[in-house]
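Before relying on records like the one below, remember that each one covers exactly one chain. Contacts with other chains, cofactors or solvent are not represented anywhere in the record.
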Amino acid sequence: MDLRPSVGVLALVAGAVCGCLAGTAIAQVPTEDRTSREQSIQRGQLKSGAAYRDLQQAQYESKLAEQDFLNAQDAQKAAQKQADEAKRQLDAAKKALDAAKAKEAQARKRYEDALGTVDRAFQTPPAKK
């Protein structure tokens, strides 16, 4: 009886030894390293979540700021229209004032001319009969 192991048995034993060694190698990774890696992943996930919330908040604030800008732009356009209309009314009123002052000056000159005519008539001696 041959007590030497067969090739199949040797392969089986070699596979088992390799499997045990691999398991031992994994088991030999310090718990601290796995925990540190897991903690690092967890910290990264927390940071990613916080960064995403910050992004959402920034997007929301950006939308609000854009709406405020558009509202202010509309208000400025409306105010500019009102200012343009007020300027047009001011110009028209100034033109009417200038015309009224010119008319008053002409009326004053005619009045003073008429008074001068009356004064001259009083200063002229009466006609002799």
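Helices lie at 7-27, 31-123.
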